[in-house]
Amino acid sequence: MSKTEISADQLIATYREENIARVKLAFADLDGVHRGKYISLDKFADIAGGTSGFCDCVLGWDVNDQLYDNATFTGWHTAFPDAEYRIDLTTERRLPDEDNCPLFIVDFISDENGLHPVCPRNQLRRVLQKAECMGYSVRMAFEYEFFIFDETPHTLREKNYQNLTPLSPGNFGYSVLRNSSLSDLFHKFMDYCEAMNFPLEGLHCETGPGVWEAAITVDDALKAADKAALFKTFAKAFFNKRGLVATFMAKWSMDYPGQSGHIHQSLTDGSGIGLFHDVKGQHGMSTLMRQYVAGQQKYLKPFLSLCAPTINSYTRLVKGAWAPTAATWGVDNRTT
Predict the structure, then answer these.
(1) Contacts for 282-289 with beta carbons within 8 Å, 24 or more apart?
(2) What are the GS catalytic domain coordinates in residue numbering (predicted)?
(3) Given a cut of 90, is residue 305 above it in pLDDT?
(4) Are 199 and 273 contained in the same domain?
(5) Residue 1 pLDDT > 60, yes or no?
(6) Residues 199 and 65 both lie in one domain
(7) 323 in a domain, yes or no?
(8) Domain ends where: 122, 145, 162?
(9) H or E segment at 298?
């Protein structure tokens, strides 16, 4: 039986055989931050084939648990009822550093048992459904740059987020010396990502003190987005457990270029053949790919509310910092 056909009863029977005591649930909020909880195996058995709920404030909070002041979906005016969710049983992962505790992603659902109007994962589902109706399948791969500090959450606050000690000093992009000196950490992290089902096809030191860059393996768009969000959450957890802190913020210090993420995108037909390549087209680009790039260029400004959602994002988007500052496109071009 494939993973898409697995039943709740099968999972529960397996967990009981393995003496699994609990399950972890997670969902991405409006800022892409994972929230969730542990539930007992008995509770999982009660809801795995049905639904349960989280207080709907989780779909209106910012990263500091403050309600967005212009929210209409939730707030004091709604009395904070439960937002109903369903566990996506196809997303099971085992947490390698939690005695193989299962982890699942949940989807919020509407009153009609359909796609939720606010849930970010459901918004992606809507876009993918539209693409499917047009005859397209979407493939994506994410890359992330992140700083690692020899700090703890407490020392960060004690230092007021200044004069932090990086994992390694100075600039040394693609350093073999550094990844060899820290080889145990590199190998353990890549093994961890493999076990968590967001395997990395590449990991290296980037320019900057304690900066790494990870390239997550390509997948279908929904799975790729799940992997990208989970990677950021559990990378932080991985390093926290080792007395370190990882941050993905766009620019933690004005002394360094900052860090970013890349989203590799492609469209395929029903048989998996790529639709962006045309050997006869200029630069090998098909007409569809040119239209796709044109659409992104046209709507890049409103897209910024999604890909650059914080004030800190715009400290990164400046000239000379290896970051885009205009709605342009190029071929193998990192400057314009």
Answers:
(1) 283/331
(2) 120-336
(3) no
(4) yes
(5) no
(6) no
(7) no
(8) 122
(9) helix 287-298
- Stated as kind and residue range, the H or E segment containing 178 is helix 176-181
110 and 173 together in one domain: no
Average pLDDT over the chain reads: 93
Distance of CA 206 to the CA centre of its chain: 20
C-alpha dist (Å) from residue 62 to 39, 85, 302: 24, 20, 20
pLDDT for residue 39: 98
Domain range spanning residue 76?
A: 3-122
Q: What is the DSSP string of 18-38?
A: TT--EEEEEEE-TTS-EEEEE
CA distance 229 to 241: 19
Domain boundary among 87, 122, 157: 122
- Domain CATH code at residue 276: 3.30.590.10
Q: What is the C-alpha to C-alpha distance for residues 260 and 189, in angstroms, rounded to an integer?
A: 20
CATH of the domain at 99: 3.10.20.70
Query: Cβ distance 316 to 323 under 8 Å?
Result: yes
Q: Is residue 333 part of a domain?
A: no
Over residues 172-228, the pLDDT tens digits come to 999 999 999 999 999 999 999 999 999 999 999 999 999 999 999 999 999 999 999
Which pLDDT tens digit goes with each residue over 65-114?
Answer: 999 988 889 999 999 999 999 999 999 999 999 999 999 999 999 867 68
CA-CA distances (angstroms) from residue 224 to 141, 175, 218, 265, 301? 6, 28, 7, 10, 24
How many structural domains is the chain composed of?
2
Half-sphere exposure of 314 (CA within 13 A, CB side): 7
Q: In the block, which residue shows the tokens 């790529």? A: 274
- 95 with 147, same domain: the answer is no
From residue 198, give the alpha-carbon distance in Å to each of 104, 189, 193.
Answer: 14, 11, 5
**Distance (Å, whole) CA 277 – CA 275:** 6
Q: Are residues 28 and 111 in the same domain?
A: yes
